[in-house]
Amino acid sequence: MFPKPLPALEPNTFAFEQTPLVKPTGFREYDARWLFPKEINLMGVQALGLGIGTLVHELGVRPDIVTGHDFRSYSSAIKLALIAGMQAAGLRVKDIGLALSPMAYFGQFALDCPCVAMVTASHNDNGWTGVKMGANRPMTFGPDEMGRLKEIVLGGTYQYRDGGAYEFVEGFAETYLKDLKARAKPVTRKLKVVAACGNGTAGAFAPRLLEALGVEVVPLDVEPDHSFPRYNPNPEDMEMLHAIAAKVKETGADVGLGFDGDGDRCGVVDNEGEEIFADKIGVMLARDLGKLHPGATFVVDVKSTGLYNTDPELQALAVKTDYWKTGHSYIKRRVNELGALAGFEKSGHFFFNEPIGRGYDDGLLTAISVIEMLDRNPDRSMADLYRALPKTWGSPTMSPHCDDEVKYGVVETVTERFRAMKAAGEALAGQRIVDLVTVNGVRITAEDGTWGLVRASSNKPELVVVVESPVSEARLRAMFAAVDGVLRENAAVGAYNQTI
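RE: above sequence
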């Protein structure tokens, strides 16, 4: 029997080569993330593959699975170790090679595989690895499945089975890009588009798709370099958005599009170099799609702008908005449950249901939707569409360090602190708290509509903080200072990655 994993091992030892290493905190709410090889070794990845196969059979799902890997120096090795475990557990593996996460999700449909295991650390820094998994297309695992997978792997209770197989699917990227192009409407407007890929996986695919759509492509950091020399491929980080804005201004582009490390997210910069946070792009797309689909339902995450509820144009279109838990698995599932037209996350994960997409998140399909929105508004620039939104002042996603082992406890403590403040009528940033939303962390709203959010990151040892005000930048900063003041009552909360 394959050995039971240990939670810690000393590297450069015989034990490290003879025993699986799997740190328990790598099992997140809806996918898995580890530092490699500090928190998981290749034998640990094999154990994970055995666990996935065991769980698939336990769920009673047909054991056909598609897998691929992102562009990092170690991802291919990790994928092969994962495949070894999955085959041993009786899974029939179809390997699509270097891929974007949405390419693997598409493979579930195109290759008739109910299951997926995509090796990617997404936008995490170099050194991270992980797996995004699912066994019920287009959904990915949620807390229940991840909890059971953790039990199987850490307990070493995986089951060997006969029937495992392996097939490499050559040229699958062409099938994926051809399908996306077939879903796109012909672009009649002459557009120049910056395609920024942060030297990550999307550089192999996004520029090709955009060129096929007939737009002029200005490539930015599309060359492969898994050291990510300029910035992390994360369109939620200001560093990447600043780089896109500079290139848009330099080239006179109509729009800048930035893709994350595994291509399931898309960030947007307008033609004047204004960096538009993804939740506002979602409002713009909801306005555009709401005209085509009156009364449509949209799902948005709790990090997102309050405009989904207050925008007069969305109200006039009678669209419905459901605020839900942050996380690609949560929003994807909610979109499917409600039969929503689309789901939008502030991080840039956008989920389009039929007739636009298949319900999973795809940054390239988001890019198509932005381009089609511009094409449907030939007399308006991206900046014009952005200025048409009611003005609010919003922060980027800000993440103070907080260890995985304590971050959820810190959020519970902070939530209780805000509950007590609300009950006592205590002011926050000079105003009374009128609403607390605790579906995912805590979102605190003041009398004037200014709000702040604190939640635990699902994929890194961090908290997540977002603030927005419909009143002024001063109120935005006051709310941030007040929320941060409560956070600083907890010694486990460290420095931010970025702030306002």
